[in-house]
Specification:
Length: about 220
């Protein structure tokens, strides 16, 4: 089973974070067949990444509809893996992240698997006034989420994977929704998962808490 890991990015301000994300993907117990960096409408960043990684990592540029949704789609179109996995450019994966996502695809009914996201606080600790039940507001796994592998309606965008053939069957991410730069209009992964279940009702979308990233 071949796997492509796609990391979407858009700003030079996250260049250091992006390097940490890439390094964590390169150090996986299950080595990805390819890593793709998809850049959203930033030619300077695209050229810098192209010159830095040369042929070791595929770097692609979204020149179509601006935003995260189409940038993900550009990455998918450039991918060759049977499974496409996504991690955010400001996240770091634990070493067995990919292995724990992929182990479920031996079941042909599984079309998508997502994992757990733990906050990486800038100062090293959580503000006392911010409850864990609201971690979803900052794109992380919240208190009350399942603690064992289970079927879910949708998975989180910062830590997710899909069968590539199913994406081409039901359609890619909708460009009508999704973040654009600093405008955080989420929900595109939820819409995609709901669409998958509508067209393929006998399939499974799983949440695997052992597939961990720090975000």
């Amino acid at each position: 089973m071949k796997v492509s890991v796609i990391i979407c990015t858009y700003t030079m301000e996250r260049f250091k974070d992006l390097h940490e994300a890439i390094q964590s993907v390169m150090n996986q117990t299950y080595e990805p067949d390819e890593i793709i960096i998809a850049v959203d409408h930033n030619k300077e960043l695209f050229e810098r990444l192209k010159s830095e990684f040369l042929s070791s990592i595929k770097v692609v540029l979204n020149t179509n509809t601006p935003g995260l949704s189409e940038t993900r789609n550009v990455g998918i179109r450039a991918s060759q893996g049977d499974i496409v996995a996504f991690i955010d450019d400001d996240a770091v994966a634990e070493k067995d992240w990919l292995e724990n996502l992929l182990k479920h695809y031996s079941d042909p009914s599984v079309v998508a698997v997502g994992g757990k996201s733990i906050p990486l606080w800038n100062n090293g600790y959580r503000p006392g006034w911010f409850p864990e039940e609201l971690y979803w507001l900052i794109g992380n796994t919240y208190k009350g989420h399942p603690e064992v592998c289970t079927s879910v309606r949708n998975i989180a965008g910062c830590n997710m994977s899909f069968r590539r053939e199913v994406l081409h069957e039901v359609g890619l991410f909708s460009t009508a929704i999704g973040a654009r730069g600093e405008t955080f209009r989420g929900g595109e992964e939820a819409e995609l998962c709901v669409r998958m279940k509508h067209y393929l009702p006998n399939t499974a979308i799983l949440y695997e808490p052992d597939a961990v990233i720090h975000h």
